[in-house]
Design goal:
Low-confidence stretches: none
Keywords: Membrane, Transmembrane, Transmembrane helix
Shape: globular
Pfam family, one: ABC2_membrane_2
Largest sheet: 2 strands, parallel
Radius of gyration: 20 Å
Transmembrane segments: 18-38, 50-76, 110-131, 137-161, 173-194, 246-267
Helix content: over 70%
GO cellular component, one term: plasma membrane
GO molecular function, one term: ABC-type transporter activity
Strand order of the largest sheet: 1-2
Oligomer: single chain
Strand content: under 5%
Structural class: mainly alpha
């Protein structure tokens, strides 16, 4: 039960953060604005899936990782610098309780702006001629909350491994820049190399298409787009490239579990 106490306290601390309140307001405003823009000007009937499709692109995969990283990058290292971590560990909490309790607590906290950000546009547009698919809408909210949880896991794992808040801040900023605006730039040198060399060398057991597919999967936002796109098109595990969808979901679970475990490994060996 010890991790539950950590998660409960961490959730209460996170939801009182001004950063979370500000980013929640920004997310709500942007989702409501996008929903209003995609509404037909002529007053015709439109689908809730059209709203989700418009929001699903850059808005979700840009803001949700940012909110998660901002909320969780100092989860452990911040308490370590303030000295409150020693007090926390003097209670009947193991270091694993602290790491995974904070992942759960901050994951629950990030669910609040996600739910508000999607429910409010639905309520505002419900007065119009909206074909509302409740199953798709709720399912997409859950998928988006899962994306937030993945980035919370990455940030908490990183926070557990760092010795100073400055390093944690730089790491969170670096992760965000790598996964969001710079991921295409990571692929660019490889594209140039393959064009100049005429293809993949014979000793590489993958084709060029398979390499770029793997690069796409390695980015959690890329894997999320694969899963959510298939879900909105009613093809999740039933149509399209099912093996790609399974690989994308497995990659998301890998990002959720491996960083906290690596962070715990480093945290267990650290002197406070």
């Amino acid at each position: 039960m010890s991790w539950q106490a950590v998660a409960r306290k961490d959730f209460e601390d996170a939801v009182r953060s001004w950063w979370l309140l500000g980013l929640t307001a920004l997310f709500v405003l942007l989702t409501s604005g996008v929903a209003y823009v995609v509404r037909p000007s002529g007053g015709g009937t439109f689908s809730s899936n059209a709203i989700l499709g418009a929001i699903s692109g850059t808005l979700v995969t840009t803001l949700i990782p940012l909110i998660a990283l901002v909320m969780a990058y100092s989860a452990i290292v911040g308490e370590r610098e303030s000295g409150s971590l020693k007090l926390l560990l003097s209670l009947p909490h193991s270091r694993a309780d602290v790491v995974f309790g904070k992942v759960l607590g901050r994951s629950a906290a990030i669910a609040a702006p996600i739910v508000i950000g999607f429910v409010l546009p639905a309520l505002l547009l419900a007065v119009g001629p909206l074909q509302f698919d409740a199953g798709s809408y709720v399912g997409y909210i859950l998928l988006t909350a899962f994306l937030g949880t993945v980035f919370v896991g990455i940030a908490v794992g990183f926070s557990a491994a760092m010795r100073s808040q400055q390093l944690a801040t730089a790491g969170a900023m670096g992760l965000y820049l790598l996964f969001i605006p710079l991921w295409g730039a990571v692929q660019f040198p490889l594209q140039i190399y393959l064009q100049l060399s005429g293809g993949v060398p014979g000793w590489v057991p993958l084709t060029g298409q398979e390499i770029f597919r793997m690069i796409r999967l390695l980015n959690p936002t890329g894997s999320f787009k694969i899963v959510s796109g298939a879900f909105l098109n009613d093809q999740l595990f039933t149509g399209g490239d099912v093996s790609l969808q399974v690989a994308a979901l497995a990659m998301l679970f890998g990002w959720l579990l491996i960083p906290p475990l690596l962070g715990l490994w480093a945290f267990d060996r650290a002197d406070l």
